[in-house]
Design a protein that fits this description.
With about 100 residues, the chain is of the alpha+beta class. The chain has one domain. It has a four-stranded mixed beta sheet with strand order 2-1-3-4, with helices on one face. It is globular and about 35 Å long. It starts with a strand and ends with a helix. The model has no long low-confidence stretch (mean pLDDT about 90).
Length: about 100
């Protein structure tokens, strides 16, 4: 399983996303390394189809279906919605659900 965490240097939320990702991996007893990918320019954001920071991809797929479609790619902060709550990072629960689906 390939796990990527894409972010930009000024993002205040990527470390919490990484902590949540590690927690989800631990809960599921999955091993695997997290590849940190620092996106450094608008051009790179477009090339990588980067919808904002932080972005977590499992086997090349964003944890939110459709997030890497379209053309709104830039060095911007990303907002995640879960129920009626909005945060700058995905919850452990959401990450765990995606990991479970990816793992079969």
């Amino acid at each position: 399983m390939k796990i990527e965490l894409l972010y930009f240097k000024g993002c205040p939320s990527w470390r919490q996303a990484e902590d949540n990702l590690k927690a989800a991996l631990t809960e599921l007893r999955l091993s695997g390394s997290i590849e940190r990918v620092r996106v450094e320019s608008k051009e790179e954001a477009v090339r990588r189809r980067f919808p904002g920071s932080p972005t977590i991809r499992i086997d090349g797929k964003d944890i939110e279906a459709g997030a890497d479609e379209g053309n709104a790619f830039s060095l911007a902060c990303r907002i995640y919605r879960e129920g009626d709550k909005f945060r700058g990072w995905p919850s452990v629960r959401r990450i765990r659900e995606v990991l479970q689906k990816a793992g079969g």
